[in-house]
Design brief:
There is one protein chain. Helices cover about 30% and strands about 20% of the residues. By secondary structure, the chain is of the alpha/beta class. The chain contains eleven helices and ten strands. The chain has two domains: about 15-180 and about 280-290, 3-Layer(aba) Sandwich (Rossmann fold); about 190-270, no CATH class. The longest helix is centred in the last third of the chain and has 15 residues, at about 230-245.
Amino acid sequence: MFKPHDTNEPELSDAPEDAEFDDAFLRDFPHFTAHRKDVRALGAVRRKFGLGRYSDLNVFVLAHDRDVSAERVFAKDNENNVVFYSTRSSIKKALERRGHAAKKTNLEQHAGSERAEIFIALDPELSITKRLRENIAPEGWVLCRVRAANSLRRFGYTFRAVVDMSSHTPSLSRHDDPAFWKSVQVDSEKAFREASSEKNEGVVTYEEARQKVKEAKDAGISGMSEENVYESYAKLIEMAEEQNPGAAAQGETMLSITVPAGEKQTTIAGINTVLPTKKSEHDDDIVVMRRGLT
């Protein structure tokens, strides 16, 4: 019988205000289930990318919405190690009582000795921190929501597909489509301001974009306005991608541009092409990302 990985980390202590909730949680003994739609969605990913061909994969699942579909789909393959992670001891204990391997660890803050070949994190509020990324193996697969997937682009992850969850039977679409991100990123000044957050690691913030627009304006680039940061920065991104087509095609997201300034050339570096995402029809979908390979 598979035993959970030993990360040699101290167990997290619950906040005092969580104690009453945890006691009630254990008394009620929550019902965990493999939702049919989620099983179909994860199964479609497994088939499309041939993940059933491999054995002894580490599959890390951030416990969310009491769903155990990942184990139903991936544990049947040759000795795959499916482990659920939660920050609550009550959820860990409840999962273990149901026969699931579980650990109490906040993977956004801690990295263990084991790494996941398949990392499933469907919490829409997930933060893609440095510690969380350290839990993912080189060339690892990540299944997450669009906001988290967008953050991963900055760190060498490539978009592979999106699982459309809007219908009764989930289906994969937009395979390796480089235009996907253009369709979900912010598209107005207001949307950019509202979506900007320093918590979205790897994603340019409104203030960072404003500073880059000012730098470009001071360098003499036309059309730059600190009163309309979105349109100005979008123009910088367009220029950067046009000047660096090879790098952009390879998924590089930190680019530079060189522009004439009198008799000299001026280079503006550090143009982050990853804009925040807006609310869209893809918010409930599952995005498939892969590290290191296209």
